[in-house]
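Hi team,

As requested, here is the filled-out complex form for the S-adenosylmethionine run. I kept the field names the same as last time so the parser does not choke. Let me know if anything looks off before we queue the next batch.

— J.
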Amino acid sequence: MKTFFILGRNPELSRAEILEFLKTRNREHKEIMFRDNILIIETNEGEKFNIQEFGGIMWLGEITFEGTPEKLEEHLESIEIVPADKFSYGIFGNIDEELLKNKFKERKKKATIKHGSKQLKMQDGSKINIPKAEFYIFCYEDAGVTYFGTSTQEYDSKDVKNRDMNKPMRRELLAISPRLSKILINLSGAKPRDLMLDPFCGVGGILQEALIKGINVHGIDKDKQATIDAIANLEWMKENYKFNSKYTIENKDSRKTPDLQFSGIATETPLGKVLRKKPNDNEAKQIIRNFEAYMIPILSKLAKVKKPKANIAITFPTIRDFHTDAQKIAEKTGLKVYIKPILESRPDQFISRDIVVFK
Ligand SMILES: C[S@@+](CC[C@H](N)C(=O)[O-])C[C@H]1O[C@@H](n2cnc3c(N)ncnc32)[C@H](O)[C@@H]1O
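And here is what came back:
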């Protein structure tokens, strides 16, 4: 069966998240198409996805038709596209709008097509119009083949926002988004019942998203207050959400990570002091070099406490055009760059991040 995914603001990162999720679970899969923010994956029959397990997917659904544009017309004759008499719909893809409009008219359905009512700013600076509709139709023609389906799942951003905004302890400046937390967890290779490490856990943003996925977590932070706050947040999670996974938090330097064997490491690194103004080239270069020197002994330790199959999904700072040298770090720590750096940036921030996955 084939599933289509409408990806969020960083399609390359979201694609990596989905592919790694499948690999980790030994689920056979084949990438059929990846264009803009659209991905189609083929898996074994009956294999379902739960969109809430991911950080980077906005909508998904099954491809119910695949063939030539002429055959699509026949297909649309034979099916009830939307089982309601009055509805609004949005389109993802490159189908001729008139075709659907006519179909609904023929069937005397009061269907209103909605066009972009909000804009999603993509990582590369482009903008995608997202229609606000009751129903979404996916139709994409690529190299003479048309894929058609309707969306069956939508990302529940309300619930995720609730967790993020209502937890008792927040640190605005250092907060990680639940979206990026989920992506890092999926990239780390950790699955339900595994033990995952966050060696720079702060107030526990990544840990809380892992717990809710049923992953046991171990968090380390050298800042005592951060660990106290992380515990408060995770206790709040226990009161407000159902999960059986467990957590432990340690207040120490992550160079002294205990000699456990972790199935995944997902973390957001410290950038040192918070920058109030954009550094010049020399300052930027220096910050990155200092960061590399700081991380090497820590990653050397992490290399020893991860299971052979486990990944380290980590954020590295990027300032101006200066990137942390992931390859150099790999060589010095005995790790391998498994997924090459993927830039994650926002136009309003002068420190961006590369997401790197080591094995
Ligand atoms: C960017 S913050 C992580 C934020 C975290 N994701 C959250 O949800 O709060 C980085 C954290 O790394 C911690 N840290 C920095 N160097 C460390 C070290 N050597 N060992 C352990 N923790 C460290 C800092 O105290 C800080 O809380």
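Two things worth flagging: The chain has a mean pLDDT of 93. The first strand starts at residue 2 and ends at 7.

Thanks,
J.
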